[in-house]
Amino acid sequence: MKISKDIAEAAQLLKEGQVIAIPTETVYGLAANALDPTAVLEIYKVKERPATNPLIVHIHAIEQLTPLVSEMGANAQRLAEHFWPGPLTLLLKKTDRISDQITAGSPLVAIRMPKHPMTLELLKSVAFPLVAPSANRYTTVSPTSAEHVAKNLGERIPLILDGGPCEKGLESTVVGFDANDRPLIYRLGAVTLEAIQAIVPEAGVYESALSEPAHSPGMAKKHYAPKTALRVVDDLRVFLENYSGNQKLGVLSFGHQGLAPSPHTLVELSQNRDLEEGSQRLYQSLYALDEANVDLIVAEWFEDKGLGQTLNDKLKRASY
């Protein structure tokens, strides 16, 4: 396995049907030719991901949608015009060019146009779209640096394209549409509900039935989980003041001034309680606390709006 900044080398491996890791503004992705069934199958194997969990297709230009998507409603077009390239994924009716293998049997395909300049250049240098779920083993913490990918996947892939630390640090927001073209968020991510409602005011959050197959990635109850057990509390300061156990704690702080965690390990998400900074640092902080060999990671729920709503969703799944 090699860490490289060579886009031409990355493109050649993809053309050969290989699977590589690529940077995006959200998290690092595990990429393969979306039109090569053998390469797509290899992604599931490398990630140890169940075939019931669909993948996201990545493009570099809106014109690429034509052979992949059978229809695109007015609100999907409005959201694409506003947020692409960027951390928004749209669920659209697929054509036969997109295999059921990619969508886990769903008639909808998840598509986005990433914003990372290195990955956009890579997409332009190959004649096919890429599927790219997060570059980690299934249910584990998403990687936000090339080093995270190397630690998580080891020698399972030949190349990690190094684009530096991810700007957003959270997955893309996945939006589908009901029969009336109302946008519904299937996966909370870097684009908030409020930002989507600023474009389409009637947008809401999708409520899935328990027996329903997944149309979108990121809907599993257990996801984004560190190796160390994670507990989320209502008040971190009160929890620490009353803690009488003998476990070594890893404390995930969000601007708690004067918090005295000794003898525990503290990692600060944002001293100034900046949600964008906290989002960007969440996964790297979980990696750091895993490496600190603590017995339990403790975090506090965020105010449940904006990016706080997204962070709560990640913490809920990570602690399941």
Task: Write a brief structural summary.
It is built from 10 helices and 16 strands. By secondary structure, the chain is of the alpha/beta class. Strands 2, 3, 4, 5, 6, 7, 8, 10, 11 and 12 form a 10-stranded mixed sheet that branches.
Structural class comes to alpha/beta
CATH topology label of the largest domain: DHBP synthase
CATH architecture of the largest domain: Alpha-Beta Complex
Helix content: 25-40%
Overall mean pLDDT score?
94
Supply the CATH class of the largest domain: Alpha Beta
CATH superfamily of the largest domain: DHBP synthase
Shape: globular
SS element count, helices: 10
C-alpha end-to-end distance: 32 Å
Beta fraction? 15-25%
Could you state the order of secondary-structure elements as H and E? EHEEHEEHEHEHEHEEEHEEHEEHEH
Low-confidence stretches: none
Please describe the biggest sheet, giving its number of strands, its sense, and whether it closes into a barrel.
10 strands, mixed
CA radius of gyration: 19 Å
The number of E-state strands comes to: 16
Query: How many independent structural domains?
Result: 2
